[in-house]
Design goal:
about 200 residues; 4-stranded antiparallel sheet; 13 strands; 5-stranded antiparallel sheet
Length: about 200
């Protein structure tokens, strides 16, 4: 959009871009603007298999940045389980972190999960386990929302988690290498029942 709130004709096609990642459904859930004007979209791509976390980068003019990932796109290579991105953060050096949740294989419960990408868009294999890190609070489901990176590269991952009766507010913090931060809450985890009924953060 322009500063006046109208469509910017210099971006994509008269201010609107539609991008097909090759799946049946492609859905953007979060966006971050890079200093050079490039736009990073994070979300989910679903074809014949399970939903998979996906990241797309655009140039400042709204065209796909083919130097990023695989032709501009990075989609989770794990086709055995559902993974979704609901938040994206850019570190000071330009690397990306995408947060959301991932389900276990064979229909297992969902946990908060963060995916790490190199400057090139390739998975950062040294982060967590082979490029992703999971935070489990209980045997029930946890669903991740937004994602925030602090100045030290630590990652705050808010969401909502099932306590057996209803959903509570949950917040996890990861160290830059993807491990749970032992100096935050209970081994990197905070859970709070704010009020009666369901609580959570998107």
């Amino acid at each position: 959009l322009t500063s006046e709130g109208g469509l910017d004709p210099s971006f994509a096609t008269n201010g609107v871009g539609v991008f097909d990642l090759g799946a049946t459904v492609d859905l953007a859930e979060a966006v971050v603007l890079e200093p050079d004007g490039k736009v990073v979209l994070a979300g989910v791509s679903k074809g014949l298999g399970p939903e998979r976390a996906a990241v797309l980068r655009l140039r400042a003019d709204g065209t796909v940045d083919t130097s990023f990932g695989d032709g501009g796109v990075q989609v989770s290579s794990d086709v055995t389980r559902r993974t979704l991105c609901n938040g994206v953060a850019r570190l000071g050096d330009g690397r990306l972190r995408c947060g959301g949740h991932g389900f276990g294989s064979m229909g297992g419960a969902a946990d908060l999960e963060v995916f790490a990408l190199e400057l090139t868009g390739a998975p950062e294999r040294s982060f967590g386990i082979d490029g992703s890190a999971r935070l489990t609070f209980s045997a029930g489901d946890e669903f991740g929302g937004a994602l925030v990176a602090d100045a030290r590269g630590r990652l705050l991952v808010p969401g909502t988690g099932w306590n057996g009766a209803d959903f509570d507010f949950v917040l996890g913090r990861l160290l830059p290498d993807g491990s749970a931060d032992p100096g935050f809450g209970q081994q990197g985890r905070v859970s709070s029942d704010v009020a009666s009924g369901d609580d959570g953060c998107q």
